[in-house]
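pinned: reference chain
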Amino acid sequence: MYDYYLGGKDNYPADREAAERAVEAFPNLQIAARENRALMRRAAGYLARAGFRQFLDIGTGIPTSPNLHEVVQGVTPDAAIVYVDNDPLVLLHSRALMTSGPQGRTAYVDADIREPAAILRAAWNTLDPAQPVALSLIAVLHFLPDAEDPYGIVAELVAGLPEGSAVMLSHVTADFDPEPMGRLVATYQDAGIPAQARSVAEIARFTAGLQLVEPGITSCQRWHPEIPDPAATGIPVADAEVSCYAAVARA
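pinned: its structure tokens
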């Protein structure tokens, strides 16, 4: 569905049908997906320029170029990136589309975010557990309702990372446009996909104990828009159109 929102071709009739229902519920969904993807590129590039050479991306999804490793290795060619997802289709596509540059490394871990200890064990086969890691949780935490203990999962992941690590995340919210976001969440739930929008205060709990990078938790398109992004459209968008918060925090 996300690939469809971004105008990709790696989707199927069932995906397109469900995605069209979601767009009907939240008409700005394709704009939101585009801005969320742009946020990933800016945040990953920011952390790479800040010296991070290791990235752990959970909830990878169908690859859409430029992928996280392309962004990061464009800054630091020797960077190592571990992608994590539990979808066999993502695994299939990752073999062809998530290939590292000659100086760096990429790996794919078939695992569920609900198993943080297993993810970390697998990640250390590629990443150095003695060096800082940038943990990417882009557009994944809103698929973990409170009953799944998302705060405990994130806390366990962060606690398992080396000193000096960082977290980059994005999360949908109903703070800006409650009614359409409520319809969107209901559409996902009706399709059997757990989903939960959260307020800025609820999202802040994911960064408890961490030092937020300025400007803190803000709408995706407002997080360091001055960072160059060759894929950016340059079209201004409102917070209600995006309805998604973003943050980068240092441990």
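why pinned: The mean pLDDT is 92. The two ends are 33 Å apart (CA to CA).
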